Amino acid sequence: MAALLPTEWIKNWEKGGKSEFVQLCRALSENKNHDVGFRDIQQALYELAYHVVRGNLKHDQASNVLGDVIEFREDMPSILADVFCILDIETSCLEEKNKRDHFTQLVLACLYLVSDTVLKERLDPETLESLGLIKQSQQFNQKSVKIKTKLFYKQQKFNLLREENEGYAKLIAELGQDLSGNITSDLILENIKSLIGCFNLDPNRVLDIILEVYECRPEYDDFFVPLIESYMYMCEPQTLCHILGFKFKFYQDPSGETPSSLYRVAAVLLQHNLIDLEDLYVHLLPGDNAIIEEHKREIVEAKQIVRKLTMVVLSSEKTEEKEKEKEKEEEKTEKPPDNQKLGLLEALLKIGDWHHAQSIMDQMPPFYSTSHKPIAIALCQLVHVTIEPLYRRVGVPKGAKGSPISSLPNKRAPKQAESFEELRKEVFNMLCYLGPHLSHDPILFAKVVRLGKAFMKEFQSDGSKQEDKEKMETLFSCLLSITDQVLLPSLSLMDCNACMSEELWGMFKTFPYQYRYRLYGQWKNETYNSHPLLVKVKAQTIDRAKYIMKRLTKENVKPSGRQIGKLSHSNPTILFDYILSQIQKYDNLITPVVDSLKYLTSLNYDVLAYCIIEALANPEKERMKHDDTTISSWLQSLASFCGAVFRKYPIELAGLLQYVANQLKAGKSFDLLILKEVVQKMAGIEITEEMTMEQLEAMTGGEQLKAEGGYFGQIRNTKKSSQRLKDALLDHDLALPLCLLMAQQRNGVVFQEGGEKHLKLVGKLYDQCHDTLVQFGGFLASNLSTEDYIKRVPSIDVLCNEFHTPHDAAFFLSRPMYAHHISSKYDELKKAEKGNKQQHKVHKYITSCELVMAPVHEAVISLHLPKVWDDISPQFYATFWSLTMYDLAVPHSSYDREVNKLKVQMKAIDDNQEMPPNKKKKEKERCTALQDKLLEEEKKQLEHVQRVLQRLKLEKDNWLLAKSTKNETITKFLQLCIFPRCIFSAIDAVYCAHFVELVHQQKTPNFSTLLCYDRVFSDIIYTVASCTENEASRYGRFLCCMLETVTRWHSDRVIYEKECGNYPGFLTILRATGFDGGNKADQLDYENFRHVVHKWHYKLTKASVHCLETGEYTHIRNILIVLTKILPWYPKVLNLGQALERRVHKICQEEKEKRPDLYALAMGYSGQLKSRKPFMIPENEFHHKDPPARNAVPATVQNGPGGAGMPTSLTINTVRLEEGTTEETDKLKEKSQGVVKVINKTVNATPKVTTSNGNSASNSKIIKEKDDKEKSGKEKDKEKKDKTPAATPEMKALGKDGKDKPKEERANKDEKAREIKEKTPKSDKEKEKVKKEEKASKEEKSKTVVTIIESKSTVEKEREKEPSRERDLAKEMKSKENAKGGEKVPVAGSLKSPVPRSETSESEREQKRRKVDTHSSPSHSSTVKDNLNELKDSSAKHYINHTTPTLSKSKEREVEKKDLDKSRERSREREKKDEKDRKDRKRDHSNSDREVPQDSTKRRKDENGTTGSSKHSKSESPSDSPRLNEKEKEKNKSKSSGKEKGDSIKAEKMEKSSSGSKKESRHDKEKTEKKEKRDSTGGKEEKKHHKSSDKHR
Predict the structure, then answer these.
(1) CB pairs under 8 A, 24+ apart, for 296-301?
(2) Is the pTM of this model over 0.85?
(3) CA distance 1340 to 1307
(4) pLDDT at residue 861 tops 70
C-alpha cells in the first residue's frame, strides 16, 4: 500500500510538510465513505508516529501537529490510541532501546490529547507503568482478573427476598386448582403473567414449575399442552428443551431412576411438536455407541452359549462350569443403568406417537428396542388398538365374544385400520419393528393370524377388478413377509404354545405348499441367525432334542412323544432336522420316532414334510454307497421313514410327490425309492417281486381276495391313507405325469443316467423305476374312479406316439381303462334290455367289448410297421395286451384257502373263553361278512371269465393271419407280445404262460403251439443275459409256468391225447396256407412229444451251463435266478441235474471271495437242487412210459434241432423254426435237411445205426460242455470195453465194407440237399414232389420190396436163437448198474417173447432205445461212413416195414430165413476181425474209434432181441399207433416191460462209456438223415405217408 506521508514532507517539515499533512488529514476526515476515511486516517497517523519512533521527526513536532488534527473527527483520540497500541506491541518486540524510548516520549507528549482511561484499556500494563499512569503492573493485573471474574463468571443471584415466596405459592395454587370448570389455559396464562410481574418471579423457574405440575396431573393434557404452547411465545425456543434436558440429567447418576411421568411429559411435548426429538435426544443417556456395543456383546454371548451347549463336556468339568456360570449370572443381575432413550420410546408408544417412536427405533440396532419387554408390550398394545375395527369386522371367530379395545383418546395417534389396505400401510410396519418379540403377546399373535386367514379367504375368492387384484397381490406378498419376519420367529420364542401353532396352521393351509415351504426354509436356515435370542433358542432346542433322542426307545414312546410334541410346537424345523439326521444314521429309530410323533400339531406335520424333502434334496449327501453299486443307506432310511410317517399322520403329500416328479424330469431316478415306499405304506400295494405262488394266485382274483391273500401285510387300515394319496395326486395333477415320467425314465436309466455307473446299480435303478411304475399304476387302477381314470389317461396311440411311452407301460396304464369301459358299457346294455339268459348276457358283453375295443384296434395300428399286421391282427394284439389274469382264470384254490382261513378264525373265536361276548359277536360278524364277500366275488369272477372265453372263441379265427409263414407269426407274437409282457410283472409272467396255453386250447388257426414252446425254450441265453435282476425273476416265473404246462402234458398219455392230441397247435407239418386240416398223420404223437420235451430240457441245460461258464456277473446272476424259479419242473433227469450241480458248485468255489452276492445265490440254488435230487429220474424213464409205479416227468439233454427225438417232418420244421436265432442252428438246419435224405435210403437196411447217427449231431453239441467230465471218465470207459463181449458179425462187416462207398453217398447227399432247398412248401407244387419221390422209391423198392413183410415170426426166431447171449449181457449190465449206484431195474426172467409184438410197441421201444442211446454218448457215429454200405445188405435182418402188407407172409418168412443165415455167417467172421481191430485201436488214442465198435456190438445184440422199427416207421407211428396200440399193448405189457428195461439199461451203459469227436458225428448225421428223409417217403402203396413227407418238404 502506498505511503500517505512522503519522506520529502518529513525533510521539509517546518517549511511545508506540516501544512501538507494537516490538509491531508482534513481531506480524509471529510471523505463521504466513512470506512475508507477511517482506515486512511489510521494509516496517516501511524506513519507519522512511526517516523518519530525511527527518529526522523521530533516528538514535540509530532505532538503539535496532532493537537491541530485532533479536532477533525470525534473518534480521533480513539484512533490515536489504537495506533499507540500497535506501536506498543511492535516496539516491545524490538531490540533497539532508542526506538522504544522515542515511542515513550511521543506518548508522554500526547497525554493531553488521549485520556488515561482509553490508554489503560489498550496499552500493556508494563507500558502504562513506564508512562507513570499506574503504580505497579502486577497489582493492575490482579485487579483486572478479579473484575473479569465478577463480571463474567459469578452468577447473579436474585434476591429471594425481593423475589417474594408468596408469588410461587400463588403460582402453584393457580396451576393446581380444579380445572373441570370453564377455566381455560388463556385465563391461567394471564394470571401467571401478573404473578411474574408482581412478585418478580423468574420466568424459567415458572416454566419448570408448570412442567412439574403437568407431571403430577397427566390427565389434563388438553389444559397443559396449550398452556405451555402459549407460554413458549414469551421464551426463547430452546428454553423448554433445555429445561427438560436438565430434568433428565438430574436422574443420570448410576442409582437414579427416571420417573415414567417425566417420559410421558416429554413424549406429549414431542407429539405436539413443542420440542424437537433431535434437540432432546442428545440430553438422553446412554449414547448410541454404547447401545451398539451392548448389542454386539449380546450376540457374542449368545454364540458362546451355543458353543457351550454343543460342546461335549466331561462330567468332572461340568460341575466347575456350572459354578462359574452361577457367579456370572449373579454379576449380571446387578441392575443396569437406566436407558432413558428406551423409556422415552415406551412413553411415545403408549401415547400412540408412532412417528417419533419409529425414528428412535431407527437409530438403534434392529430389534434392539423391542427386545426389552415393556417396549414390545407397548408396541403390541398400539397394534391392538390400530387393528381393532378390522379385527372386529372380519377376524373374530364365530361364537367368540372377545373383549373390545377402546381407541386412544389422543387425536394424533395412528389411524385405526378399517380395511386390509390400511392394515398394510399402518400395522405391517409396526409388526416388522416388533419382529420375533410378538411372542410377548400371544393374543395379538392370534389376532394377526386370524386377519391373515380372513384376507386369504378374500384373496382366493374371485370376482374383483384388475386394480383390486394388483392390490391384493401386493397385500399377499406383504402378508408372506410378515409371516416370515414376525409370526414364525415369534412362534419360536413362545413357550410351547400348541394353540398358536394350530391357529397359524389355519392361515398356512390357505397358502400353496410352495409358499409354505419357502417360509419354512427361511425359518429354518436364516431366521435363527438373525437375533441373539433366537440363536440361544436354537441351541437349547438342539440340546433338548439330543436329550430326548438319546432316551427314545420302543418302550417309552409315549412320554418321549409328549416331550417331542412340546418341543415341536415352537421350534419344529430345528427339532425335525436333528431327528432326521439321527434317522439317517440309525434306521432302527424309525419305528419309535414315527410312533412318538402323534402329539404334533398340523403345522408341525407340514414342517416335517418340508424337512424330509430338504433332507432328501441335500446336495452334500452322496446317493450311492462308496462301492457305487447300491443306493446309500441314509436315502433308504429316509424313504422308509417317509412311507411310515405319511401313512400314519395326515401330512400333505403334494410337495413330496412334486419333488419326485421334478427329480424324474431332471433325469434322476434315485428318489423313486421314496414314491415306492409311500405308495407301499399308504396304499398297501407292494412291489410283487418276492411274492409266493399262493400270493400271486390270490392277486389274480378280485379286490377282496387281493386284500386278504395277495399281500404280505394287512392292508385293512389303508383306506384313509390311500384316499389322501389319491387326493394329493388328483389335486395337483400328478397322477399321469408321474406315470409317464417313470415310463420314460426306465430307458433313461440305462441310456442317460447309467453312463458311468456300475452295471449292477443301473439294473437296480431300472428295476426300482419299473417296479415303482407297476406299483403306482396298480394303485391308480384300484383307487381312481372310472371317470377320473378315463379323464386322465389318453388313448394308447397318444401315449406311445406323443408321450413316447414304451408300449408295455402304455398298455399297462390303459388296461384298467378298457376294463372299466367294457364293464360300464355292459351294465348299460344289461339295463337297456332285461334278458336273463346266459346267451343274451354273453352277446351283450361281446357287443360292449367290440364298442370299446374297436377304437383301440384302430389306434394300435400306428404303433408298429405295416408288415407286422401281415402276421397278427391288431385285434389279437390289442386283446393280448388288454386282458389280465383276472379275465382268463378263476383262482378257486385261493378263494377256498381264504374261506377256510376265515372258518378256522371263527372256530378259534368260538373256542376263546376269555373274549367278551359282544366282541365275539362283532368278530364273527366280520368274518362271516368277509366270507360272503369272497364267495360272491368268486361267483362274479367265474361269470366274467366265462364271458371272456366266449368272446375269445368268437374272435380267435381273425387273430393270426399268417400271410408269410407260421414261423414268422410266432416270431411276431413272441417279439411284440410275450417277451415284453412276461418281464413286466410277476402276474404278467403268469398271464403270458396262460395266454399261450389258452390260444392253444382255443384251437386258434395258424398258431403252432409246438413252435411257440420250442422258441421259448430253445435259446434262452440272450433273453436271460439282457434282463435286470427282477426281470430275470419274472422271466423265470414265466418259464416255470410254461414248463408246468409242458410237464403236465408230458406226464400222462391220457392228458396229452385229451389236451393236445387233436389240436392244430400240434401239427408237425406246417402249411403256409390257412388250411390246418386235422390229418392224423400230421399230429405229433405222445412218444414223439416226449422226445421234444427232452430236447427242450437239453436246450435249457445247455443255455444254463453256458451262462454259468461265461464268468459275466449278469449272466451268472440271472441264470441262477431263473433256475431257482423253474426248480419245481426242471431239472428232472439225473445226469442233467448232476451237470448243473457241478457247474453251480464250481461257481460257489470261485465266487466265495470275489462276488459274495453271486456266491449266496449259487449256494441257495445248490441247496435247493440237492433237496430235489430224490425226485430226479434216470434218462430212460423220462423217455418212455413206465408202469405207473414211477410217473415222474421232465428231461434234459436232448437231441439237436434235427435230432432223432422228433419225427422227421417235425424235426425239419423245428430246424426251420430256429433259423435266424444263431449261426449254430443255421448250420444244423442245413445238415439235418441233407442228412434225412441219406437216412431214408438206408432206412430199410438198419435202423439201429441210423438211430445212433440221427442223434449224433446233437450229442456232439454236448461234447464240448462235458469234455472235462469225460476226461476223468476215460479210465472207466476202458474197463467197460474190456468187459463187453465181442461184437456181432454184422458190425464187423459194416466196419469193412462201409469204407468203400462214402464218395457216392456224398454226391447223392448233396444232390438231395439241393432238391430239398429248391422245393417250397406250397400246395400247388405237391404233385411234382410226389412224382419225384415215387421215382426215388422205385429205385429203392427193387432192393427192399423183398423185406417188406410182416416180420413178427422172424423176430421171434431170432430171439430164440440168441437168448443166452442177451441174458448174459443183461446180467452184466445189471451188476454194473448196481455197482455204480444207479437205478436197479428188474430184468424179466427170460427175454424170449413168443407172442408176436405189435408194430407200435416195437416202434416205441425202438424210439426209447434210440433216445437213451443218444443222449450221453456223443460219438456213436464215428463208423457210420463205413456202415452205410453195409446197411443195404443187412437190411433183411434188421428192418421190417410195417406199411406194406401186400406180399404174402410165407414168402416173407423164406426170404427172412435165408438172409438171417447169411448174416450170421458173416457176423462170426467179422467178430474175429473186430477183436483185432479193437486191440489196434486201443493203441490209438482217438476216443471215437475206441468206443463206437463197442457201442455197435451192443446195439447189434439189442437188435437181435427186438428188431425195432426205423425212423421211417417212427414218422408213421403217429398215425398208426392209436389204431394198433390199444389192442396189442395190453397183451405185451408184462413181457415187453422187462425186456425194454433190460435194453434201456444196456443202452445207458453204452452211453456212459462213449465220447468222441464232434466233426465226425456231424458228418455222419448229415448222411444218415438224408437217407432217412429220402426213404421216409415210402412206396406208392403208402400214399398217406407220401403226402406227409411232401407237405414236410
Answers:
(1) 298/532, 299/532, 299/535, 301/532
(2) no
(3) 17
(4) yes
